[in-house]
Amino acid sequence: MGFHFAIPILALSSAVAASQDAFQSKCVQFGNQINLPHVSVNFAEYVPGGTNLSLSDNAPSCNAQNGAYQNVTADLCRITMAVETSNNSQITLEAWFPRECNGRFLSTGMVVFQAVSVPYHIANCWSGANSSTGIQYYDLDYASQFGFATVGANNGHNGTSGKPFYHHPEVLKDFAYRSLHTGVVVGKELTKQFYDEGFNKSYYLGCSTGGRQGGNRSSDTRATSMASWQAPLPLTSAILFRGVPGSIRSSALRQCDTLDGAKDGIIEDPDLCRPILQTLICAADAKQTSSCLSSAQVHAAEQVFSPLYGTNGDLLDPRMQPGSEILASWIMYNGEPFPFSLDWFRYVVYDDPSWSGNFTVKDAAAALPRTHTTSRLGRGDIRPFQKTGGKILHYHGMQDELTSSEDSKLCYSHVAEAMGQSPSELDDFYRFFPISGMSHCANGDGASAIGQGTQTYASSDPESNVLMAMVKWVEEGVAPETVRGAKLSAGPGSQAEYWRKHCRWPRRNFFKGPGNYTDESAWQCI
Ligand code: CA
After folding, report:
1. Ligand 1 center from residue 511 Cα (angstroms)
2. pTM
3. Of 72, 311, 343, 454, which is most buried by a Cβ count within 10 Å?
4. What is the pLDDT of residues 115-140, one digit of tens each?
């Protein structure tokens, strides 16, 4: 990684110093004074709100996704550091301390917003097995504009290749847990030193790998993703998932869309959706056409919609939920290895860069002992967290094309069972909201703008913004009953076409009418 040396020198020049206000001076001085074990400050710079920050240090593979610039909304002090995590590993850490601080600390996870228009194979800065890829600048900007003293780390390596893990267990440890933890410990200390009033509350915001870091699991999911792409391999085309007449997509929607009472192209509760696909098979005497499928194709689709069991019969991963076919057809059902899963098996599980990717369920078994550090289902009894007053707002898009939302339901059940608590008891501190019409962390066909970041921002009202909902829950004791999302008419920043309140698990959304499905009051959590 390269470091900027020019910037602090410029900032310290007398001409600039003359026009500095107290906050600017404090920022630069603070950078020079930081004295924490294992922390090497690269530079500290004052960044005025409205700056389009150049990210020339970003790994090229990350710039493909993030762009080489990040807009900075709030006036802030940006501190960049390297933190040693062992004798031969380190993380890159940034702290963004806003001028107007609200007394709250926030750590970002590896959130990734996946623009639908970006082909996945070049979209690198999101969470796969190995993509840690650098700091989530858009989240640093998002949280700091709300006044949070915000930190973000690179998870111990830059770029999206799995090669840094190869024969390097310390880098793997950073990715698994140590980068996040280290960033929080260092970030909290710096926040206390930077602001006279320190901070009162600590928050965490993450999705994708950030969801794994927040407590969900990942290794089995990788196994499934391998199986998911493997299953349709006999198919010559993934187009059968893409909504054409006679396709898997059309059939699933036809059978399941109105189970929630509204024909709106969105399946509110995929649990109720068990599409029967056999009827799509061409008649024995018919030539296969665009309006019917071969039995091999239908069988492949049925595998995708079925749970994955291990060699000993244990459930490895739930099925892919129906409803995400179109996006998944481009990345998971395209007959090619999911790139991050492939790297994970090559560089972590098998230490074999030439491993073929011919995945079977035996590989899932092989993966488990090697991936325990990146958490299978973690400790389910999280009473210690609860006792400190901790709250969890957990969400998962029900059109997630990468990780089945049923995985989050398993995670929730795991906690419920381990703690011996019913959902109404868990509601005290842990609430799970499946979000209909949301693909992987953002976007999707439905009311998915719930305010987890810039791309999903539609309102700062706690009712319609999950970050603000957490603040209200933690600081005022008012828990979110629903999570309200906007269907944005033309992507991030555009007008809301309609709103919908998403129910907390295990309730589900039902259209009771009267009126149109775009009328949020016509829906009810049941
Ligand atoms: Ca529907």
Report:
1. 8
2. 0.89
3. 343
4. 222 223 222 343 333 333 468 888 99
